[in-house]
Write a structure and sequence with these properties.
The chain has 354 residues and is of the alpha/beta class. The chain is built from ten helices and 15 strands. Helix 1 crosses helix 4 and helix 9 runs parallel beside helix 10. It binds threonylcarbamoyladenylate (TXA) and magnesium ion (MG). Magnesium ion binds next to loops.
């Protein structure tokens, strides 16, 4: 649903902006005035508001339909700005900043009192990210404030990786959308909790625990709820994981997420068997009058899978398929693990093994 150049606001309620300097200035003014602007980052599109303005942040929760205990990531444009948000920069935090910023890594650190509770969902920690996307950096710079930005989708829907996805979910609910390029990474940033003894990945992303370990020279673990969710499925494939069965440390990880409109099923196992089973299930369902969309990535094409996964879910929804069948990726690979985290959630942990 990306509009051709030159017919900017045709049929749209929300202001559509380009990445030109003038438009970035306009967007920055909206943020400074307490408004909401969706903008591209290298991971997914974000829905931005002044992170230090409680009313603006409250509007973000409302526009997304997001539970208010689910904290936001605060985006900055210079590494030194993290000092406004946290009193504590350990050598490990500094090493991660040096190695991975700007980029798709979010650091959870102790928060300073000036960061509003509403931004952090009442937690005494704050999640901070310095994105790599130039448009995002220009916007934060021009706004002259840190920008709180969850993914720019309605709560529960797949994250948006293209401006058209944002229009579909949030047109009429926010003040402006900056129409930039499609997102390079395609899944959200890695979130790592730096407040405990052992750095802990709360949300997997393309920067893997192994890459973090290499940068700081010590052990980094995945939050046990990430593995538990997986093991739970293994123990009880018929029932999947109940939303309240496990207690992740990252509040956002407990909600039903990324769900397409269609019913979704993941098929896992040896590749040829998976292909055959998907083919069988597709034919069977089509005979019964259901339209079926298939998501099957090339073997070991983890980066491509990350890039395409949310876009494919949204495209299949637009086609109006009744059912989506996806082939599981190997989650022995760190990026595969990150994509599988999203795939299993979008399928509501509905999985069959062959
Ligand atoms: O790539 C990204 O991170 C994108 C772009 C826009 O930057 N943003 C994004 O935001 O994915 P959101 O709100 O959709 O996801 C933020 C995640 C949630 O799972 C949230 O619970 C977690 O980060 N989070 C935020 N603050 C936290 C904190 N203080 N402690 C633990 N988890 C936190
Ligand atoms: Mg999100």
């Amino acid at each position: 649903m990306i509009r051709p150049e030159g017919c900017k606001n045709f049929n749209m309620k929300t202001l559509l902006l380009t990445t030109e300097r003038e438009d970035i200035e306009k967007a920055a003014r909206i943020i400074r005035d307490g408004g909401l602007v969706a903008f591209p980052t290298e991971t997914v599109y974000g829905l931005g508001a002044n992170a230090l303005d409680e009313e603006a942040v409250a509007r973000v929760y409302k526009a997304k339909g997001r539970p208010s205990d689910n904290p936001m990531i605060v985006h900055i444009s210079r590494a030194s700005d993290i000092g406004q948000l946290t009193p504590m920069l350990s050598p490990d935090i500094v090493a991660l900043i040096e190695n991975f910023w700007p980029g798709p890594l979010t650091l959870v650190v102790k928060k300073k009192p000036g960061v509003p509770d509403i931004t952090t969902g009442g937690l005494d920690t704050v999640a901070v990210r310095l994105p790599e996307s130039q448009v995002a950096l220009d916007l934060i710079n021009a706004a002259c404030c840190p920008i709180a930005a969850p993914s720019a989708n309605l709560s529960g829907r797949p994250s948006p990786t293209r401006a058209g996805d944002v229009v579909q979910d949030l047109d009429g609910k926010i003040d402006a959308i900056i129409q930039g390029e499609d997102c390079r990474v395609g899944i959200e940033s890695t979130v790592v909790d730096m407040t405990g003894d052992v750095p802990t990945v709360l949300r997997p992303g393309i920067i893997t625990a192994e890459a973090l370990e290499a940068a700081i020279g010590k052990r980094v673990v995945y939050d046990k709820s990430l593995k538990e969710a997986r093991e739970h499925v293994a123990l009880d494939p018929a029932h999947g994981v109940g939303e309240s069965d496990f207690q992740p440390k990252s509040p956002g990880m407990k909600y039903r997420h990324y769900a397409p409109k269609a019913d979704m099923l993941v098929v896992e196992g040896e590749r040829e068997k998976v292909k055959a089973e998907i083919h069988r299930l597709k034919e069977l369902n089509e005979k019964l009058g259901n339209s079926v969309g298939v998501i099957m990535f090339e073997e070991k094409a983890f980066i491509e899978a990350a890039h395409d996964f949310f876009a494919k879910l949204r495209d299949l929804d637009r086609e109006g398929v009744d059912m989506i069948i996806a082939g599981a990726l190997s989650d022995a690979d760190g990026v595969g693990f990150a994509v599988m985290n999203r795939m299993l959630k979008s399928a509501g942990y509905n999985i069959v093994r062959v």
